[in-house]
Prior knowledge:
By secondary structure, the protein is mainly beta.
Amino acid sequence: MHDKRRRLTVIAMIDWYVEGVEFGNCNCSYGCPCQFEALPTNGNCRGFEVVRIDTGRFGKVDLSGLKFAMLYAWPGPVFEGKGELQAIIDERADAQQRRALETVLHGKETDEAATHWWVFRAMSDTVHETLFKPIDFEVDIEARTARAVIPGVLDSTGSPIRPPHGDGEHRVRIDIPNGIEFEFAEIGSATSRTGKDAAVQLDLKDSFGQFNVLRHSNAGVVHG
């Protein structure tokens, strides 16, 4: 008698890993309520992130040395969805690298809810066309300073928080052992504006700035 039981074919997920430094800015106050499972400061969420990949791969495709950015916006809290996002990938990336990074940033080849990219994609109804641009990005996590320029898309500056009651710099850090974006981040201030080529428009001044090491794989944050 023949065995007529169905055989399930398991398609293996492509193994990938991205490690580098990240700078981000959103429209929330310096504490960013989202980091504490609270509602956003202004009732909605708009922001961006830019990353320099120091070590990275997607299967056998090397991603080291490339940069990328993500623009995003939601009409309410992220978890309510109805958002939009746009990826900007380093124009130096070749065809394979572009496909690989776009796949990762759109939450594909990733365990469910394992990374913030997966969540952002799941919570976005609109995914704008990916742009391929030169990305000028410098960051010093310890100093809480950053500069990100993408011609026609983004101009952003990060700096330490300066208290209104006197001179000097204020330093505060967020530690999230079980987070889906980072384990540990320095917090500062940032000012950002998008350009005519950006599908998601930002005009942020002295709002939440985030400076951190990023280590992601298809299974989530890789603990250092």
